[in-house]
């Protein structure tokens, strides 16, 4: 806790200050926009960007993670609350905070139970598919705000403003860094300058709205923002604990996954180490903080954290500075925030989310592992077809399904002896000799419930192909573990082989595996013997 | 299909006939009792024992599997239908058949899609916990029928009859085989004779009810059984397809799991091979057949199949004979069936289910692998606390959780060279020398999304412990596969190490793994080199 503060060095201060300012300027339009995605008033996005990063700074372990509203979590919030309350209603706001509270408690509990390994339930292709599907849903959801009406009805001034901002932002995304470098900025500064384009476009559009009185012409704006810092929010709806529990579990899971995947990337760049259970506690505290300040579920944002990192953040002090600046923005006169045009905020969301439409993993997977590519596409389709929450379930199911599927097809080699040596190799790859009556199989995977049937089937196939077999030697050099299911599988195999007059032998059992087997009765009941090496089994069994 | 009939030999006939008769005599009380467990009239249990085994004989692959009602599936049927209709109502019967139809379609679809590997989602400890929890629920559910009323209210004549039958059956279960052998029966026949005790007790109780007019004294009996074979049932409730879908998925999964685990045990005894996808088709057809004859979900019964096997069944002809005899029993005068006392049927259920309360796997797992034992207990607790359907979900989650947990803790060894040899070993187990600036790690598991973070963390730990490292060699001799997630993990590791001035080398990459890696750009971007063996890496990198 706060170990970054104990080791703080003065030299870290300038980087933290500049990163704190840059991220605050990025956070204002982004926080407001993501609150819109969540179906909440824009100011709630600012509320959710103050207390959460302060609490994360207390408990979290990443030095550069920027905690606050994030597109996918906002989308999940909206989709969880939609059946329970109308967006804009007082109940909706209460439920959003309650959802953050429950998600925070879930995260905190997982952290205290030390079950951070659960994040491994999602493979990267599935995460990529989930992100792509969510990005498309978010863009689709912003079209009415961008165009000032639901298609086919649009509001022309809004369309012009929205599409203009969109074009400007897409140009900035592609070319602004280069332009800034050409006018003399150093590479790092140019990069950061380009990231502030949304703030610039938002401020420009504000000037435009004011000058042309566009709000009077029907362009929707954010509307009056309540001034001052958020008050302490303790409102909950007792009737909604139960219907919010399942969404909170799914959202808590995604909060952790999204935050970790971003933080890992940055930690790798600095050779830092993240403690996943401490991260769970940090994210849990952040979400409880969001709930207490009337916010909604928050997480570490990959894009914002990358800017924080690039702008020189050396510690969580940068986030503390960002949060302080946002607090100042709420306390200072902020009547101008009321006139931010929604079409422009929608454009900033769409451009931010375009970065999530990254197909590079799909391309790699397509060439490297077609099954992973299929899982990616299926998860994206699940999010689009069934919604973002069902998408999480589809993702977990596909990750687990592919795991079980791979596990159920272990590589098993029939071994033969390389003439004149002590070496045994796969007879399909090497010219190695087998001996009559002796069948040697090497299983290249740990034995567990997922492959015990497959191993059995393969053994029966080989026995059918070698009907003269009297001795079956399982070479376990690549078997790192044998679980209880596989132990029973081996016992049944042994009994079945005994009945058929075949002796089962084990060779090259690893130390930790042998330690376990000694706790069972397999070794006492084994029809055959235990050999230290395949060569010793051969010498003993071949006459 | 019907391959057993094409290869039928005359010598198989006597065994099939005797097994067919024995199983039919076992099936009558059991079928009626399990229909009671499912909340259905007892005769429906006979209906569900005729067409299903005939269809399984057409499509299934096990020679000795006995298809029909089974305790756990009946329990799941009752718990699925309870929220939808009142037991005994016409709708309840329609929904039971509809559930069988949907389960059958699910099974058939899985078979045609060839996704039988999904059965591997359940580990054996979890299956054992599920069975134990279900057995306790079934016994608990039969207590009112056994005692003639809900506790604390009991009906004395029923209690006497029920507990008497229970005592007799438990005695028979323990001692009848021995008694029959002492009076001269050969071991096999004595064993089978003992299995017919339930039929004997049921017939005896029938005589008692008739002689003492116990039904007039308030002992509940089966009541009038509609005579004749079941008619073709096409009734379904269109409002219930959707609420029945999820139960049908869970029940279909358990039908397959239960049937396969029984059939596997018997197949191993004969060295037969089961085709899991063909089994799915056989079980799917059987359940659709059950639906068409007004039955309810059915599966292969482990206990009945074992009797079938022991009584000499050589092929599915035994099941065809059983089904024919049950058909005859329905067509013949069967007024006597109306007087079967329910307390006695409840006693037969309880004694049958006691066999499921098998703690041997728990004992083994307790000594062999504490985590597996915990999963067993947690699944049993889940069934008891949350119900049998939620228990399936808990079981899958625990199986997957333990899999991910194990996967997230791969064994990684720091390698050193055994002086004067080309052998490299774990420096914790052998006295092997390391070289300054060179760190060699052997990962003893396939690299995939479940362990990519753990491998990364361990590498960072080792790098922190060896800050002078200039070359990191990953020895991949035990890595059988690298999935897309792990490929990206390696690419990121490589980039991160390059930044820090450490070169990443790979050694002893297996053939199939290398074939894949060549489809990616990892090898081009690798900071270090590729070595055929750990010794070659050492020789090249140590000056």
Automatic annotation (TrEMBL), chains A, B:
InterPro entries: SLC26A/SulP_dom, SLC26A/SulP_fam, STAS_dom, STAS_dom_sf. Residues 428-543 form the STAS domain. Keywords: Membrane, Transmembrane, Transmembrane helix. Pfam families: STAS (PF01740), Sulfate_transp (PF00916). It comes from the Bacteria. It is a multi-pass membrane protein. It is found in: Membrane. The chain crosses the membrane at residues 12-28, 34-59, 66-85, 91-113, 125-143, 155-172, 192-214, 248-268, 280-303, 309-332, 339-361, 373-399. This is SulP family inorganic anion transporter. It comes from Massilia agri.
